[in-house]
Amino acid sequence: MTRMLISFMILTLGISANAQENPEGFAIVGGMLIDGYEAPPVHNAVVLVRGNRIVASGPAHEVQVPEGTPIIDARGKSVLPGLIDLHIHLDLIGHGDYDEYYNFIGGTERLDEMMPIAAKHMMRAGVTTAVDLGSPFDILAVRERIRTGEIPGPRLIVSGPWITRIKLDGVPDSYQVVINSPEEAAAKTHELIDTGSDVIKTWLGLTRDDLKAVVAAAHSRGVKVHSHLYKVPAMEDAIAAGVDVLQHVGSAKMPPYPQPLLRKIAEDRIPVVQTIAHRIWVYPATEANPGRLNTPELEADMGADVFAELQRSFKNFRALSYFSDTPDEIRLSKINARQFIDANAYMGVGTDAASPLNFHTEAIWREMSALVDSGMTPARAITAATKTGAEIIDMGKELGTIQAGKLADIIIVDGNPLRDINLLDYVAVTIKNGEVWYDPKYETNALKAIGRAF
Length: 454
Ligand SMILES: [Zn+2]
Prior knowledge:
- The protein has 16 helices and 19 strands.
- By secondary structure, it is an alpha/beta fold.
- It is 36% helix and 19% strand.
């Protein structure tokens, strides 16, 4: 077994170097437990954690807390599995314009400074696991810094550069692999996996045969393929080729999707990640409250020059090219989003954060809120972002629900998101792998003793 494979397995098992940060463990007591199963919540619950694992959970009268165990008081709060974002971009921090952003950071020169900002933003939002779909392999070094506990961030599954027939101008070459034939597609897929891709992302212009070649190569290595898709013929090609996850479908000004296609996707339980909020909900939210572009939470983790550049890019956000089609998208995507939900498609949650104005600090709750606006119940949206998300990345045995034996990825939220999903904006504590991080607003002696403030 190669060293790379071993380190990948260690990563996917979620065993981090400082997993034994709280070897004696701690108990989360008195909160309302939403376990990820789309089941009624457990009131006055206890979750017992030791090392990086959950060892018990349930109603307070059923779970014994050993004497001397540090207690995190969760009364008045909700306790949920850590959130799983199935579509992020760790290189981005919400800048208004991609070309200007890459100029500002010198291509890939300052990526090692931007990625930790994004990673910390995600932890603030309660995202404990994320799939990065399109970064240069610079991301591997940042992932290692997160894994060893040097910097806070989610557990990362990465695609590395995407595979495409159409070159995207404006991003550095190390973001993309351009292919011209199925043979080349297969060879590049193997190369990417050899270099460090955990999943493969396909982008634009691939033929059905290209996709078949990518899928065959990836599957021969036990790797899944995520495809960037909007149009019906592209979706049909991807499904015929055996692509594993349909990304973006239902999120851009497409006419309503045909029922037989929706039915096939739902019946075959082909995972769908819509990414609906990033334009359609984010833009109106910004018009309603431009103050969301300038918050202390956003500023806290970035250098002064980065924050100033971000603010400059937002000056005339109505004119940003990213949002030029938003009125059409709002009209059509609201229909598309609902179609997949009504068909009961097998859906995880992804945000495309941090595309313009779509900050990692809030992308996940906005996406979940958009799913609720489009017909999901809050409980279903939470399950999509936890249990189903874990299943889609083949980590359902380790992550996604709160129960004994699973990794201790837990968030504590101030309020009841089953009543109002937007309350997921108030993440007080984010626990990943038993490591405790908290918003200083919610500091207690116990949190100070066992955790770290953001
Ligand atoms: Zn994306």
